[in-house]
Amino acid sequence: MTFIACESLTLNIERRAQMESTLDEAVRTLSESAIVRRHGVLVTRVSPTTFVASLSPDVPYGMTQEKTEW
Fold it and tell me: What order of strands is seen across the sheet that includes strand 50-56?
């Protein structure tokens, strides 16, 4: 089995209608790495159209948290 670790994804989402599904897909993409590391996932909105989804030891294992920084 080949495992490629992914720690973060930067997403540019221009259309509100695509926001939820795109962010859900990003969290699913990070899930395997989160399980291996026993971290949660933090989704940070850094601008009106830019989001960063990343593994975070500060988020409880199995959880996803959202934050806004703009």
Answer: 8-12, 50-56, 40-45, 64-68
